[in-house]
Amino acid sequence: MRKDLESRSKDQLGGGYDRPYGLRQQSRSIAVARHGMVATSQPLAAQVGLDVLKSGGNAVDAAIAVNAMLGVVEPMSCGIGGDLFAIYWDAKSQKLLGLNASGRSPSSLSRDEFSKRELKSIPDHGLLSWSVPGCVSGWETLHTRFGTQSLADLLSPSIKTAEEGFPVTEIIAGYWKNSEKKLSAWLDSAETFLIDGHRAPCEGELFCNPRLAHTYQLIADKGKQEFYQGSIAKRLVEFSQNHGGFFSLQDLADHRDDWIDPVSTSYRRYDIWELPPSGQGIAALEMLNLLEEYDLASMGPGSAEYLHLLVEAKKLAYADRAQFYADPDFEKLPVDELISKAYADRQRKRINPDRAAADVPAGDPKLKHGDTVYLSVVDKDRNFCSLIQSNYFGFGSQVTPGDLGFAMQNRGSLFALDKHHLNRLEPNKRPFHTIIPAMVTQDGRPWFCFGVMGGDMQPQGHVQVLVNLIDFKMNVQAAGDTARVRHFGDATPTGELPQGVGTVVVESGISDMTIKALQDKGHHVLRSKGEFGGYQGILIDWEAGVLKGATESRKDGVAVGY
């Protein structure tokens, strides 16, 4: 299969680097190590995780340390003002566990408030978009059950880096620059995240965040309680009340995380694991079920035949996403039906291999009538941690509460205001979530721990990486480097209506011939850049006893091991 890949055209595979050995479309070599490995989107964060593993910490210890560092060095994408989800393989019990550490809407905020303001949707910035952040609680929940090193030790490198400063990396500098104007609208945001309160730091420029260092130190000293019931909680609520928000001390004190069972489907000889709603992970499972009956390997990566089927499967899955994904504490959701093979067989009949579908309605699953960071860690004992954490938009709501040093997420903007929608805003309810960790097992043990950042790109990215690995037999790095596509224009869980056939945006590695063939099938296709997510993954070769790591060529990150 390697020779077959090498024989394909540069255009079809997507890119070429004139590397002396290996596949030309790879941006770098696979990271290979024996004992432990970390893959994430910023080198300093990856190194902190590796230090934890080398000092005897496990995958959870390293994941917390990495996530904390990412909140310092990539603050637009994540931080303690956001939510957290994880899938964890516990080597001792040989069990896979899921964690939903996402927060809920304020108890005093109802849809009536938006009606009074004559708003048809929830703004994507400002305090109306706030929901309770679950990140710190997620750290403690993971740590209490599996951690071996103290939280103070795990946060110590991040505290030091925030105080002393760090050189800003290239891609992160670009994201920061894009947020300059919006951050400037909030005095505390500007004072925290802009140089002299006016501009974003440039690539290679040192940036310090002593405010965040102080907040981290409080958490290191006093734990989760300080964030949800102590001085941090009081300052959050005071800021909210002074700026027209709806947070109460009770909202923070009532926050809880949930251990949940991951759900799966089989694809070829593998079991793909995602978390059930309130996230969108099952959309990837729906897409894989639809694609499994096609001979994708014969079509090849970058072919119009494959990409057409991918987009059409995505339309069907996302139509269901718009109608059926919500907080399961409020609604009985048809998860088992949506990810069943029988439902996929019914839905597949709706795919026309020659024509793009327009205005795709949701199916009948009962068979009767989006900036983020992702990190992957594997330790010497073969515990696997797939963790994703986000503010949603870059710097979330754009609002930094006082001098706490972090931006608050805007996840509340993902509620619908339609009273009939399953994902409608209600007090103390979790909004629909875009961030999804993933895991793949084979023969009952982990094979691949991965994620793809990027709003509604995430299920699309999961499927493309998996098809590259499983159908096209690419290695773990090439599977992420290969040119991607992204489809926009479906109905959304916030109540937005579909937009005809939508738009397929493609990277430069997709050939003009493929674009023309997709257009002939009725697709609206545009070339674009920067909209295709951020992939990290670690694959284990059990026979050789080796870990193989990959990191996103579209980000600043690295995969490191020992």
From TrEMBL:
Enzymatic reactions: glutathione + H2O = L-cysteinylglycine + L-glutamate; an S-substituted glutathione + H2O = an S-substituted L-cysteinylglycine + L-glutamate; an N-terminal (5-L-glutamyl)-[peptide] + an alpha-amino acid = 5-L-glutamyl amino acid + an N-terminal L-alpha-aminoacyl-[peptide]
Keywords, alphabetical: Acyltransferase, Glutathione biosynthesis, Hydrolase, Transferase, Zymogen
Record InterPro entries: GGT-like_enzyme, GGT_lsub, GGT_peptidase, GGT_ssub_C, Ntn_hydrolases_N
Modifications after synthesis and translation: Cleaved by autocatalysis into a large and a small subunit.
GO biological process: glutathione biosynthetic process; glutathione catabolic process
Family label: Belongs to the gamma-glutamyltransferase family.
Protein name per the record: Glutathione hydrolase proenzyme
